[in-house]
Amino acid sequence: MKPPSPLLSRLAAHAPASAAIAAGGGAAGVSYGDVGARAQAVAAALAARPGVPGGAVAFLIEPGAAFVQTLFGIWHAGALAVPLSPLHATAELAHVIADATPAVLVASRALAPRLAAAAPAVPVVFVDELPTAPPPGPNVHVHPRADADGLMLYTSGTTGRPKGVRLSHAALAATVSSLEEAWRWRRDDRLLHVLPLHHTHGLIVALLGALWVGAAIRFVPFAPAEVWDALGDSSVFMAVPTIYAKLMQAFDAAPPEQRARWAAGASGLRLATSGSAGLPATLHAAFARATGQSLLERYGMTEIGMALSNPYDGARVPGAVGRELPGVTVDITDESGRTLPADEPGELRVRTTQMFSGYHGDPAATAASFDADGRFRTGDTGVRDAAGVVRLLGRTSIDIIKSGGYKLSALEIEAVLLEHPAVAEVAVLGVEDATFGELVTAWVVARGAAAPTLAELQAFARERLAPYKLPRALHVIDELPRNAMGKVQKQRLR
Hints:
The protein is α/β, with parallel strands linked by helices. It has helices at about 5-15, 30-45, 65-75, 90-100, 110-120, 170-185, 200-215, 225-230, 240-255, 255-265, 280-290, 365-370, 410-415, 455-460, 490-494, and strands spanning about 20, 30, 55-60, 80-85, 105, 125, 150-155, 165-170, 190-195, 215-220, 235-240, 270-275, 295-300, 305-310, 325, 330-335, 345-350, 360, 375-385, 390-395, 400-405, 405-410, 425-435, 435-445, 475. It has a domain at about 400-494: GMP Synthetase, Chain A, domain 3 (2-Layer Sandwich), CATH 3.30.300. The chain has 15 helices and 25 strands. β3 (about 55-60), α3 (about 65-75) and β4 (about 80-85) form a beta-alpha-beta unit. The chain is globular.
C-alpha cells in the first residue's frame, strides 16, 4: 500500500494549540487545531459534490486562514487543488479554469464576482458558507496517497500560454523537507508572508515550508512601511527583488530615526531570501548595508521545485544561486546534453525528487521538457565556477543575445546598467537586426526627471563591459511590464 500524503500527516501531528496563522491587522490568530478542524469541515462539504473526489477544485481566496483551511480541505476531499490569482485579469482566470476543468469553484465573496465573468457555467461556493465544524460522525480523512497529484500551479506564461503543472503530494513534501534541512526551518519561526499564493514561491516555499515545521505565519498585504514595521516581529522573510527594491526606496526616503528603527527590526531576522527573478548585486549590497542581512538567493521552477541555494551558513555570493539542495542534481550542458566543465556556460538540466508529474493534458509538452537522460531541460543558461557555485546568465532564448557572432548575457549587461545613477530599472534583450543578427537593446526606467542618453550609458558601461556587449539602442519608458511575481515580461517589450 502506498503511503498517505506527508503534508496532511505533518499537519495533523502539530500541537493543536500552537499558532498556525498569527494574529495581525485586526484578525485573530488561528491554531493548528483550528486549521485541521476547519479543513475537515470543508472536506466533508466538498466531497459530497459530484466530481470533487478524484477531480479538481479551483479556489480564489485572499491570503489568510481561509486560504489555508480551504487548501487542506480540498486535499482531505481527495481532490486536486488549483489556486487562482486575484491579480489575474478575467481572460487569464478564464484560461486557467477552462484548462483545469474544476468540478466546483470556491471563492471569497469579495472575489467571487471575478469568476462570474471568467467561468459562468462552473458552480461557485462561497468560502464563508462552508461549515466551520466537521459533521457528526467520523471525519472524512481521505488522506490521498503520496504519489497522487495534489496541486496544480500554472506557469507564469513567460514562454507562451500558461500551462498547468501537476505536483504530487510526495513532490511537495520533497521540496519543503529539502528546504527544512538547508534553511534550518524551526517550529518557533515566525514567517512574514507578503507573496501571492498562486505561485511556487509564495505557496510552496514560503507557506508550506512554514506549515511543514509547525511555524506561525503572519500575512501582510505588501506596503513598504507596514512590512518594515512587521520585520521586527519576524524571524523569516521571503520576497522577490521588486519587493526589496521598493523596501529600499521607502527606507532611503524615511527620516533617520525611522530608518534606525526599521534597520534594528530587520537585523533580527534569522533568514531573508530572494527568488523568482535575478537579484541585482547593487540591491543585495544596499539591503545588507541597511540591515546587516545578506540575502539568500536561490533557484527553482514550478516544474522542479527548488534546485539551488546559497548556504545558510557561510558566505553568500551576490548574483549567484549557489549549489544543489538535498536530493537534487544539476548539470550544466551544451546543446547535445554533454556536461560541461567549470566556467563554461550552458543549459541547466535537473534531476530531483521534487519533479512535477507532467503538464496537464499535454503529454507531448511533458515529454519534450526532458532530455534523453531523463533530465528536465530548464531553458535557463548558467555557469558553475571551480567551487561549484552556479550563476545564472538568463533564459536560453530571450536572455541570451546572439550579436555579431557573440553570445551575450542580457543579465550581465543589465547588472552594469543598473549601476548608473540615472537608471532605476532596466531590461536588455536582442532585437532582430540585419547587421548584427540581434541588436543589444535596453529599455530603461529613469531615476528622477533626467533620463540617461544612449551615449551616456555606453560611456558608463564601456569601463565595465567589452565593446561588443554595449547597448546599441535605448528606449526610455515609464515602467517595465511585469507578471504577478515581479518577473519582467520581456516578450512584451520586443
